[in-house]
Automatic annotation (TrEMBL):
Domain UBR-type: 769-840
Pfam families (UniProt xref): Beta_helix, F-box-like, zf-UBR
Zinc finger (UBR-type) boundaries: 769-840
Main localization category: nucleus
Keywords from the UniProt entry: Chromosome, Metal-binding, Nucleus, Repeat, Ubl conjugation pathway, Zinc, Zinc-finger
Span of domain F-box: 89-135
The keyword Zinc-finger appears for this protein: yes
Subunit structure: Component of the SCF(FBXO11) complex consisting of CUL1, RBX1, SKP1 and FBXO11. Interacts with CIITA.
An annotated GO BP: regulation of apoptotic process
Pathway: Protein modification; protein ubiquitination
MF terms in GO: zinc ion binding
Protein name: F-box only protein 11
InterPro entries, A to Z: Beta_helix (IPR039448), Carb-bd_sugar_hydrolysis-dom (IPR006633), F-box-like_dom_sf (IPR036047), F-box_dom (IPR001810), F-box_FBXO11 (IPR047505), FBXO11_UBR-box (IPR047504), Para_beta_helix_rpt-2 (IPR022441), PbH1 (IPR006626)
Length: 863
C-alpha cells in the first residue's frame, strides 16, 4: 500500500553472501561478522525441513519476488500468518539492527513512519530517537525538542527528563505543518523535489514578509518558523492569528534577530487576537535615535482589539523616545511572558489608553526611563517580573493608570522602585521592593493604590513615601532595614497604614509631618535604630492599636504643632521614652498601654499640651509621666503604677492638669513637684507608693483639690524647700509616716482637708526615743527636726535625728538646722562615732533631701 523505495536496493536471497547464509544455518554462525545485536530469532525455516506444508510452500512461491509481501491465509475463521519468504524473513528478523538503522538513516520522516508499520522490530527501530533527532535538527535546528501541545504554547524540554521515549518525533509531529523562513534555502528546497519528497506540506520563504503573504493567500494555516539569521527592515504588520517562532540551535532567541531602523519592528493590529510570536530577538535601532518622528515607533506595538502572545523574546530599543513595547487602546490585551526587555534607551513596557494584558515572568532591566509605565486607565496584570537596575524608576503608574502587580522583584533602580502619581491606583501584592537608590514606593500628587503583603527593605531613602494629598492603602507589608525611615508621610499626605511589620530602619519607623493625616493601625513598629513614630511640623493622623517597642529613641514623638490621636496602642520596652511631646506638640493619647521604658513612659515639655487620658503607664525606669520646661497637658483617668521613680514628675515652670488618675504602687513617690513646678491636681487617688504620695519642693506652687492620698509607705504630702501649695478638700489617711509634713519656712493655703488615721510612725519613733533610721533606712526621707554635730565634723550633706543628738551626741557641739526631709547619718553608721540607737551600718555616705531627679530625654529632632 505504500512505496518503500529502498527495499529494491536490498539483495535477493540468491545474492545473499555465503558467509551470511552460513551465519543463518551453518556451524560457523557464532563467528559471523554480522553477529551483532538483534532480536531473538524465530525457529528457522529451511528447504531441508521434511514437515514443510503446502501453506509454507505457497508462501515461498509467493515471496520469490522480494518486492511483494507474503499473503496470509484464513484458518478456522481466524487470520494466521503464512511462513515468511527467505528475503522478507531475513529483512524482518535477521538483518542486524545497526544495518537497519543505517538504512533508515537515509529515509525522511514519512518513510520512517511507513517503515514502522512493517513489523514490531521495524517499529522499534524506526522510532529510534537518534534517527528522529537528526531529522528534527535538519528541519527545525533546535538542539532540544520544542514542544507545542496546544495553540499558543511552546516550550523546550530536556529529552532525558521527558516522560515519553521519543520527544523528537513527538515534537516533529506537533510542528510539522508550518512554513519556514530561511534565507537562501527556498531555492535549494524547491530545486530538489526528489531529495525532499514527502515534505510537500513544508513551505520555505526567504523573508518574513513573504511568509506573512503566504498566510494571507491561505497557502498554509499560519505556523511560521523563522530560522537563524538577522532580518532587517521588514514590514511586519500582523492582522491575522499567525504563530511565528524562532528556530535555531542553542539559545534560540539569540540566533534569530529581527531588526528595524525605520519603523516599529512588529505591529499587531485588529484581527491578530490569537497571534503568537516567540523565541526571537526583536530590535528597533533607528539611525537617528532621538528624532521626533520616531516618537510612535517601538520594537513591539500592540493596538486596539488584539491579544497576541509574546513569549521568550529579547526586546531592545536604542531610540531615546517612545518605548520598547507599547500596548495601547481599548481591547489591547496581549500576553507577554518570559521576555527580556532590557538595555533600552527609553521606557521598557508602556501600557496606556485602557489597554490591559497579562505580563508574567519577564526580565526588565537597565532601561533609561521606567521599566514599566502604566497610564490613562491602563490596567494590566503583571506577575513574577524581575524589574531591576533601571536608570530611572522601576514601575511608574500615573494619570489614572492602574494594574495588578503580584510577586515581582523590583530592586536597585535609580529612583523609586514603584512610583504612583496623579490619580493612579495600582494594586501591588507580594512583591519585593528593595535596594532602591532613593526610596521603595513613592506615592504623590493625589496618587492612590493598594500595597499589600510586600517586602520593602534596604532602600536608601524611606521604604514608602506618601505626599501631596495622596491616599494609598499600605497593608500587611514588611518594611525593614531602610537606610532612612520606614514610612514617610508629608505634604498633606494621607493613607491607611495597617497591619505592617516595620522594623530595623535607620530613622523613624513612621514619620508624619506637614499637615499629613494618615490612619495608622495594627502595625508592629519595633527595633528601629531611631524612634518608632515621629509626628512633627503640624502632623496629624489617627494612630491606633499598634505595637511600638524596642526602639532606640522614643516610641512616639509629637512635636512642632502636631496633633495626632494615639489610641489603644501598646508602646513598650523602649530604650528611651515611651511617648515624647515637645516644642508645642499636642494631640490626644488615650487608652494606651505604655510600659517598661528605660526613661519615662510619657514626657511633656516646652509648651506641649496633649490630652492624656485612660492610659496604663507602668514599669518606667525613670517614672511614669514627666512634665518639665514649661510643659502643660490634661492628664486624666490614667492608671500610673509600678514605676521605678515618681508616678508623675512636674518641674521647671510646668503647669499640667491631673484629674481622676490612679497613681499607685510606685517604687518611689506618687507625684513629685519641684523646681518651680505648678499644676492642678484634682480628684486623684494616690496610694501604696514607696515614698511620699505628693512631694512639693523648690519654689513650686501646685493646687491640690479633692484628692485621696492614702496607704502610702511614707508620708501623705510633704512640702519643702520654700515651696507653697493650695490644699483644698483632700483626704489624707493611713499613710505610714503621717499625713501632712511641712518643712521649716513653708506656708500653705489649706481648706476643708481631712487628715486622719495615719500611722504616724515618725512621731511614734521620736516619742519612743528611737533613731529615725530605724523606720526609714537609707531609702526613705522622714520629715522631722534634724541637726548637725560639729564635734563629729558633719558636713552640710549630713543630718542627725533628735534622738541621736540626745543619746549618741550628748555633750557634743550640736546645731539645729531645720525641720525637713532627711535620713539619719548617725543611724546609718556613716559618722565617726557609732550610733547606739540603730542597728547595722550601711555604706551610704550622703543624705539626699529630695527624690532622685528624672532623666530628661536627649532625643534629637531629625527631619
Amino acid at each position: 500500500p505504500f512505496s518503500f523505495e529502498i527495499i529494491s536496493t536490498l539483495p535477493r536471497r540468491a545474492d545473499v553472501p555465503a558467509d551470511m547464509v552460513a551465519e543463518e544455518s551453518g556451524p560457523g554462525a557464532q563467528n559471523s561478522p554480522y553477529q551483532l545485536r538483534r532480536k531473538s530469532l524465530l525457529p528457522k525455516r529451511t528447504a531441508a525441513c521434511p514437515a514443510k506444508t503446502n501453506m509454507e510452500g505457497a508462501s515461498t512461491s509467493a515471496t520469490e519476488d522480494f518486492g511483494h509481501r507474503a499473503k496470509r491465509a484464513r484458518v478456522s475463521g481466524k487470520s494466521q500468518d503464512l511462513p515468511a519468504a527467505p528475503a522478507e524473513h531475513y529483512l524482518e528478523e535477521k538483518l542486524p539492527d545497526e544495518v537497519v538503522l543505517k538504512i533508515f538513516s537515509y529515509l525522511l520522516e514519512q518513510d520512517l513512519c511507513r517503515a514502522a508499520c512493517v513489523c514490531k522490530r521495524f517499529s522499534e527501530l524506526a522510532n529510534d530517537p537518534i534517527l528522529w533527532k537528526r531529522l528534527y535538527m535538519e528541519v527545525f535546528e533546535y538542539t532540544r525538542p520544542m514542544m507545542h501541545p496546544e495553540a499558543g504554547k511552546f516550550f523546550q524540554i530536556n529529552p532525558e527528563e521527558y516522560e515519553q521515549p521519543n520527544p523528537w518525533k513527538e515534537s516533529f509531529q506537533q510542528l510539522y505543518k508550518g512554513a519556514h523562513v530561511k534565507t537562501g534555502f527556498a531555492e535549494h528546497f524547491y530545486s530538489n523535489p526528489a531529495r525532499y519528497k514527502g515534505r510537500e506540506n513544508m513551505l520555505y520563504y526567504d523573508t518574513i514578509e513573504d511568509a506573512l503573504g503566504g498566510v494571507q493567500e491561505a497557502h498554509f494555516d499560519g505556523l511560521i518558523f523563522v530560522h537563524s539569521g538577522v532580518y532587517t527592515d521588514e514590514w511586519i504588520y500582523i492582522e491575522s492569528p499567525i504563530t511565528m517562532i524562532g528556530a535555531a540551535p542553542g539559545k534560540v532567541a539569540d540566533k534569530v534577530i529581527i531588526e528595524n531602523t525605520r519603523d516599529s519592528t512588529f505591529v499587531f493590529m485588529e484581527g491578530s487576537e490569537d497571534a503568537y510570536v516567540g523565541y526571537m530577538t526583536i530590535k528597533f535601532n533607528p539611525d537617528d535615535k532621538s528624532a521626533q518622528h520616531h516618537n510612535a515607533h517601538h520594537c513591539l506595538e500592540i493596538t486596539v482589539n488584539c491579544s497576541p502572545s509574546i513569549d521568550h523574546c529579547i526586546i531592545r530599543s536604542t531610540c531615546t523616545v517612545g518605548s520598547a513595547v507599547c500596548v495601547s487602546g481599548q481591547g489591547a490585551c496581549p500576553t507577554i511572558k518570559h521576555c527580556n526587555i532590557s538595555d533600552c534607551e527609553n521606557v521598557g513596557l508602556y501600557i496606556t489608553d485602557h489597554a490591559q494584558g497579562i505580563y508574567e515572568d519577564n526580565e526588565i532591566s537597565n532601561n533609561a526611563l521606567a521599566g514599566i509605565w502604566v497610564k490613562n486607565h491602563g490596567n494590566p496584570i503583571i506577575r513574577r517580573n524581575h524589574i531591576h537596575h533601571g536608570r530611572d524608576v522601576g514601575v511608574f503608574t500615573f494619570d489614572h493608570g492602574m494594574g495588578y502587580f503580584e510577586s515581582c522583584n523590583i530592586h536597585r533602580n535609580r529612583i523609586a522602585g514603584f512610583e504612583v502619581k496623579a490619580y493612579a491606583n495600582p494594586t501591588v501584592v507580594r512583591c519585593e521592593i528593595h535596594h532602591g537608590q532613593t526610596g521603595g514606593i513613592y506615592v504623590h500628587e493625589k496618587g492612590r493604590g493598594q500595597f499589600i503583603e510586600n517586602k520593602i527593605y534596604a532602600n536608601n531613602f524611606a521604604g514608602v513615601w506618601i505626599t501631596s494629598n495622596s491616599d494609598p492603602t499600605i497593608r500587611g507589608n514588611a518594611i525593614f532595614n531602610g537606610n532612612q525611615g520606614g514610612v514617610y508621610i508629608f505634604g498633606d499626605g494621607r493613607g491607611l497604614i495597617e497591619g505592617n511589620d516595620i522594623y530595623g530602619n535607620a530613622l523613624a519607623g513612621i514619620q508624619i509631618r506637614t499637615n499629613s493625616c494618615p490612619i495608622v493601625r495594627h502595625n508592629k513598629i519595633h527595633d528601629g535604630q531611631h524612634g518608632g513614630i515621629y509626628v512633627h511640623e503640624k502632623g496629624q493622623g489617627v494612630i491606633e492599636e499598634n505595637e511600638v517597642y524596642s526602639n532606640t529613641l522614643a516610641g512616639v514623638w509629637v512635636t512642632t504643632g502636631s496633633t495626632p490621636v494615639l489610641r489603644r496602642n501598646r508602646i513598650h520596652s523602649g530604650k528611651q521614652v515611651g511617648v515624647y511631646f515637645y516644642d508645642n506638640g499636642h494631640g490626644v493619647l488615650e487608652d494606651n498601654d505604655i510600659y517598661n521604658h528605660m526613661y519615662s513612659g510619657v514626657q511633656i515639655r516646652t509648651g506641649s499640651n496633649p490630652k492624656i487620658r485612660r492610659n496604663k503607664i507602668w514599669g518606667g525606669q525613670n517614672g511614669g509621666i514627666l512634665v518639665y520646661n514649661s510643659g502643660l497637658g490634661f492628664i486624666e483617668d490614667n492608671e500610673i503604677f509600678d514605676n521605678a521613680m515618681a508616678g508623675v514628675w512636674i518641674k521647671t515652670d510646668s503647669n499640667p492638669t491631673l484629674r481622676r488618675n490612679k497613681i499607685h504602687d510606685g517604687r518611689d513617690g506618687g507625684i513629685c513637684i519641684f523646681n518651680g513646678g505648678r499644676g492642678l491636681l484634682e480628684e486623684n487617688d494616690i496610694f501604696r507608693n514607696a515614698q511620699a504620695g505628693v512631694l512639693i519642693s523648690t519654689n513650686s506652687h501646685p493646687i491640690l483639690r479633692k484628692n485621696r492620698i492614702f496607704d502610702g509607705f511614707a508620708a501623705g504630702i510633704e512640702i519643702t524647700n520654700h515651696a507653697t501649695a493650695t490644699l483644698e478638700g483632700n483626704q489624707i489617711f493611713n499613710n505610714r509616716f503621717g499625713g501632712l509634713f511641712l518643712a521649716s519656712g513653708v506656708n500653705v493655703t489649706m481648706k476643708d482637708n481631712k487628715i486622719l488615721n495615719n500611722q504616724d510612725a515618725i512621731e511614734k519613733a521620736v516619742s519612743r526615743g528611737q533613731c529615725l533610721y530605724k523606720i526609714s533606712s537609707y531609702t526613705s526621707y522622714p520629715m522631722h527636726d534634724f541637726y548637725r554635730c560639729h564635734t563629729c565634723n558633719t558636713t552640710d550633706r549630713n543630718a542627725i535625728c533628735v534622738n541621736c543628738i540626745k543619746k549618741c551626741h550628748q555633750g557634743h557641739d550640736v546645731e539645729f538646722i531645720r525641720h525637713d526631709r532627711f535620713f539619719c547619718d548617725c543611724g546609718a553608721g556613716t559618722l565617726s562615732n557609732p550610733c547606739t540607737l540603730a542597728g547595722e551600718p550601711t555604706h551610704d555616705t550622703d543624705t539626699l533631701y529630695d527624690s532622685a531627679p528624672p532623666i530628661e530625654s536627649n532625643t534629637l529632632q531629625h527631619n
